[in-house]
Structure formats: structure tokens, C-alpha cells
Amino acid sequence: MKNDNIVTEVTEGVQRIEIRRPEKKNALTVGMYAAMADALLQAETDRDVRVILFHGQADIFTSGNDIGDFLQNPANSEDSPVFQFLRALMHAKKPILAAVTGRAIGIGTTMLLHCDYVVAGESASFSLPFVNLALVPEAGSSLLLPLVVGQKRASELLLFGDKISAAEACDIGLINSVVADVDVGSHALAKARILAAKPRAALLATKSLLKRAIVPLVESAMIEEAHEFSDRLSSPEAKEVLSAFLEKRRPDAARLD
Q: Where does it primarily localize (predicted)?
């Protein structure tokens, strides 16, 4: 599915998937999720593609879901575009890299748990504000995040929803490396090209071996999250919090209990 806000290009074995909606802080719409899902599926069948690289713009990776679009097109089934994208990400056989500049909010952070290598700029930041929006985490992050950063830190990140810096994200293992903001794109592309030049079958087999035990568990977690997410989305507290977000006001505390 074509979408002007998702731009793809294949060069030297690397398929770049750019989130390009800077006027809305790269907030993701249903159409953008569908386009990213299609891009991943096409990359899997294209022999010219050896590695996949996600990136945004210099000052933003993605601010997460476009709340207005999200409320009009809720992710209330496992067949919704957002879950199609997450499944494509989870089952991708080819290495996936991400270059993060600016903020990575919500799914902008949880999607990184499915990437094989993530580099961020020094001024990048990460946050998981699901509870603050009266929602629950997605993308299998309720399982993957504790495995990556530990149970206590995962609880802190998901329950409080506070922003952390690129340096902190690297220290806890959420990302691989931090470089100067201006070097993020070139660093990520260099790493992608290194992988693209490696023996194809061995590269794919190694990724498969690394993921073989965890994929069924992540898939199960993702389904459970999807059901809970749908329930939370239709709850009075979520409707109040999300409406308040759109109306740029504080939520009514009496409606959050």
C-alpha cells in the first residue's frame, strides 16, 4: 500500500524505510502502518534486499501513534494495520537496523526491541507512555523489554513512562550505540552495508537461530497485549485521557478511577 509518508529505497542491498511526516512529528497513521507492513513483506521476497534500515528525520524518529487517526481507526483487532506491521517486524528473516534521531515515543521505542542493531544520536530520547494514556504496552514489549533491560528497569520504564536519554538507553541495552547526531545516518548505513556484504545464507540462519526460542513467546504476548489494549482503548478512562490530549487539557481526575 503506497503512502507518501513512508518512503522506501533499495541501494547496495539495503532497503531504507523512512518515516517522513515531520510536520506531525512523524506520528503514525493507519495508512503508514499498512505501508510499513507492505515494505517489510516486499523486502522479504526481494533478493536485492539483504538488510532493512528504519529511520526518521534529523529531529524526530516518531512520536508514536497519531491520536486523532488512532481514535477514528482503533487497533481493535489482530488484523488491523498496526498488528500487521508488528507481525511483519517480528517474523522478518532479514536483519533489521534502526537509526534513531530525536524522540522515539511509544511504538517508536517498542519496535526497536525487534531490531537487530540500533544506533541513536546523542540528543535522541525514548519513552513508553502507555499507562499515561490509559493504555497498555504493545509489540510484545511486556515480554521483550524485561528480557532486554531487566524486570525492575522495564517496570520503571512502563509504569512511569518517563523519557530516558540515548546514553541511558545504551547503558541498559535498549540500543547498541550512541554517536553524534550528524553521524547517525552514515553510521547506520555503514553497518547495514557491512551486513549486506556478508554471506547471505549464514546471516539469515544466524538471525533465525537467535530468535527461534523467543518468537512463539513474543507472538503469544503480542496477542494478549492486543486483547488488553483493545479493552483499555474502549474504557472510559482511555477515552477521557485521549480526548484531553487532543483538546490540550488536563484529564478529569474523577474519570480516571
A: other
